[in-house]
Amino acid sequence: MRGVWKRSIHFVLALVCSGSLVFGEAAVAFASDHGNPIPSAQSMENVLTEGQDLETSQEIIDKGDCGASGENLTWTLDAAGLLTISGEGQMADYKNYSQCAPWYPYREQIREVLIEDGVTTIGAAAFYNLPEISEIYIPQNVKTIGHSAFAISGIERIEVAPENPYLKSEDGVLFSKDGTQLLHYPYEKADTAYVIPQGVEVITSSAFAHNRYVTEITVPPSVTEIQAYAFSSNRYLSELHLSDGLVSIGESAFDSCARLTQLSLPASVQRIGADAFWLSGLAEIQVHPDNTFFSSQDGVLFNSDGTALLCYPPTKEGTTWSVPEGVKRIAEHAISNCDNIQELVLPEGVTQVDASGISFNDNLKGITIPKSLKNVDSYGFSGNDALQYIMFAGTQEEWQSLSVSGKLEGLPVHYNGTGHVEVVDEAVPATNATTGLTEGSHCAVCNTVLKAQQETGIRVYLENQVISDTTLDGDVYIGPNAVVTLNRVTIEGNLYVLGGARLNSITVNAIHARSFSFGYGSTFYNGTVYLMGSNSIGSMYAATYPVEEIPLYLEEGSLLADQGKVTIVGATPNIARFYCNGKEIPLGDDGWFTLEGMDVTKDREIEFQWVTVFGNTITKVFTVDACKEDGHMIVVDEKIEATCKTPGLTEGSHCTFCQEVLREQQTIPALGHNYVDDICTNCGIDRSKCKHTGGEATCIEKAICELCDTEYGEVDGNNHKHTQLEGEVPPTCTEAGCTAAETCTDCGATVQESTAIPPLGHSGEICNEIAATDDRDGYTGDLVCSRCDEVLEKGQYYVRIYRVYNPGNGKHHYTTDPAERDFLAKNGWIYEGIAWNAPKEGDPIYRVYNPGNDNHLYTMDIKERDNLVKGGWNYEGILCYSAGSDGVPLYRVFNPYVTLNPHHYTDSLEECAFLESNGWKVEGISWYGLGN
């Protein structure tokens, strides 16, 4: 339970009902058991009123009608959050968003729902999105539950009265009474693992959809069917164990299961619905080798004989993939939303790409298409925004004869399988303080990068150049007249002072490089090479001439003992200069360096390391300790006395040679005023005569004088020093919000009032659209809010109306049957494409046939149909359905000059105008379609 009291929906239906239960959109009949008496409303009072006192009268905040017939049911909502449904008969059906239940605006306030005796149905979306309800109680007489009645509510468990003949619950999950159907797994049920009970045969539509907690589900062998959207948007589901016995997997069954990376299909599976794995996290699909309907190769799903590619797992690893030989058809959404794939090769033999077959692959750059490809359904290659080129095995003429659309139009095409035409991109030298580029190459046809150019190291030629806290790729060169400082720099290559450089100075502070070399002929004019801090340099080599011009500064710890070497060709100890803490130390006649202090002079011996580098002469490395206690140049830091207002410092000392603090000064606290008869005994100030200045009054305190520390003036009620923001409410699509109010934490005053923010409003976009094919109905897609994911308007299922033409007699014919279309095409008719799309539901359009002159006529007018039948025409049934006046109008035009095929039907005003200009008569709008 998610609150401090129990929040439930209690359904009390004392009316005995028989028949079937509708949960979602399907009506399901269950076995009944009427042997147990029905408890009265009074006997259920304890269940109904847990956490609530029914004797307490609460203010009614809203009410209205909610019956299927209007006033047959009413609703009331009281101030305690109790929603009560009263009356006789059926409840009205609602839609999630476009036609909400009348209490929907109060969904945040509703804590309990009480449905009284006499109510026989629970309407569609009746209690949709009630976030404060955590439990549903369904009593014994509930018979019909509409689609999405409890969707996206805060439900953690569902309970059913034991006497209910239609339903039962186990562990808070809703089942049919006989246990063969799992109807609803609660949206907020917090278990992370769930084993479906043995005996369940059907997992119904959207049963587990949107659950936010379950990560592992085990399906028993008794389950034969997983219906559409059963696990849709189950974003945390990572393990799903399917058992042998499963026969059918419905449309979009695992849609948007982002963490489900592997799925094994048992031998028993015979059907997989469209988009079953759409937007899932699958990287691998395995099929049992004994399955006779499906197969898998390298984790990719095919039909049984491997001629149809059904699903390339969306997250399968690999950037290049070749469809196996033998595949003839790429099924709808077979390669879709696969972000890893960059190069795709279709083999010779592929003839068909279904609607959206290769679509929305964000990183797909190139596709190889065979000459055998003949048919590409609508949007076959849509949404591949990164596509750069096409490799086509045929000629340009053959490509132009292939009907393609979407992202393939306008792309560069390599004809005859010639592949890329490589063009070399020349190397770019590094410029002044900028990187260069290595040699690369690209394709002259499609500009695809074949060999990427790499950045090279920089060359520094600037005076006063400072480079700090970075990594430089490649070799780094320092050129003429440079004053360069490198601070904490890592160089991937070598560091060079170019030959012939006129270098004033270079400072290297904590640098890492392979080597540090001075080019032959470099000249240093009154300059010095400084190596400071902890440097890591593989070797240092100076091949300069004359070597006497290279003064070298080495700081303690700057070279690695086991790697760092300084080679000065032909040098002797008398040539080099030694510095310690910024001061040059001369080399004495005896070969000793002497460190001089204020009071003490102490000799320090230089350590000699005999090293040979690059076959050159012996080298000396000079190292020395910095100041020791007996070598410090001591300076006294004088004591600073504290005053009434300012702190002081004790006496200390430091070394002026190395700046080391030898005796740290301590802070002396300020004395503060000590008043006797308004006179401070420490500083002598008279607070009675002070003019008081410098203080600042606040909303709760007067000002304090900065001279005498006396409180003066008045409290400033507008000067709030400490405030906080609170009460901010972000707006949603349907509800207003407000900005935060600013209040003072000292006095509690409101500094800035909160301001209202109007609702954002829904922002609709089409989702879940399915293109119709010869084998499957289409779906126009749902209008879904991109902000809150609410479905604003459900789409419609539709069929395609095919139009064929007989050039022999000028007759047009319309049909929804691909077999009839293909039969006529084989007998000389010409298939002209899809005339319009028609919904699966609506007002019927009748098809009649005149056997005397071989004419067909289509009409919505029953009287016209019946009169024609009386006149000898044959009624052949319903062609399709009209979409209603909000659809695309279909015009009927009539040719008064012919008796054969005098009528024609079209949604094109241009075609109407053309026919009218040739003597046809436009008879007006016959019906409405969904467009084409």
Task: Give an account of the 3D structure.
The protein is mostly beta strands and 932 residues long. Among the domains are: 1-33 and 41-51 and 60-167, no CATH class; 422-451, no CATH class; 475-630, no CATH class; 634-668, no CATH class; 723-757, no CATH class; 764-793, no CATH class; 797-929, no CATH class. Helices cover 4% and strands 35% of the residues. The protein is built from 5 helices and 85 strands. The strands form 26 sheets. A 7-stranded mixed β-sheet has the order 4-5-6-7-1-9-11, with no helix packed on it. The longest helix has 9 residues, at 818-826. Mean pLDDT is 77; it is low at 1-56, 499-505, 509-515, 517-582 and 590-630.
Secondary-structure blueprint of this entry?
Layout: E1 8-11, E2 20-23, E3 26-29, H1 45-48, E4 60-67, E5 70-78, E6 82-87, E7 112-115, E8 121-122, E9 135-138, E10 144-145, E11 157-160, E12 167-170, E13 173-176, E14 181-184, E15 193-195, E16 202-203, E17 216-218, E18 225-226, E19 239-241, E20 248-249, E21 262-265, E22 271-272, E23 284-287, E24 294-297, E25 300-303, E26 308-311, E27 320-322, E28 329-330, E29 335-336, E30 343-345, E31 352-353, E32 358-359, E33 366-369, E34 375-376, E35 389-392, H2 396-401, E36 413-414, E37 422-425, E38 440-443, E39 449-451, E40 459-460, E41 465-472, E42 476-478, E43 483-491, E44 495-497, E45 502-503, E46 505-509, E47 512-513, E48 516-518, E49 523-524, E50 529-532, E51 536-537, E52 540-542, E53 552-554, E54 566-568, E55 578-580, E56 583-585, E57 593-596, E58 601-604, E59 634-637, E60 648-649, E61 652-655, E62 661-663, E63 667-668, E64 675-676, E65 679-680, E66 703-704, E67 711-712, E68 723-726, E69 737-738, E70 741-744, E71 750-752, E72 756-757, E73 764-767, E74 778-779, E75 782-785, E76 791-793, E77 797-806, E78 811-815, ...
Parallel strand pairs: 1-7, 1-9, 6-7, 8-10, 9-11, 14-16, 15-17, 16-18, 17-19, 18-20, 20-22, 21-23, 26-28, 27-30, 28-31, 29-32, 30-33, 31-34, 33-35, 35-36, 40-42, 41-43, 42-44, 43-46, 44-48, 45-49, 46-50, 47-51, 48-52, 50-53, 52-54
Antiparallel strand pairs: 2-3, 4-5, 5-6, 12-13, 13-14, 24-25, 25-26, 37-38, 38-39, 55-56, 57-58, 59-61, 60-63, 61-62, 64-65, 66-67, 68-70, 69-72, 70-71, 73-75, 74-77, 75-76, 77-78, 77-79, 80-81, 80-82, 83-84, 83-85
Domain DUF5648: 801-929
Keywords: Signal
Pfam families: DUF5648, LRR_5
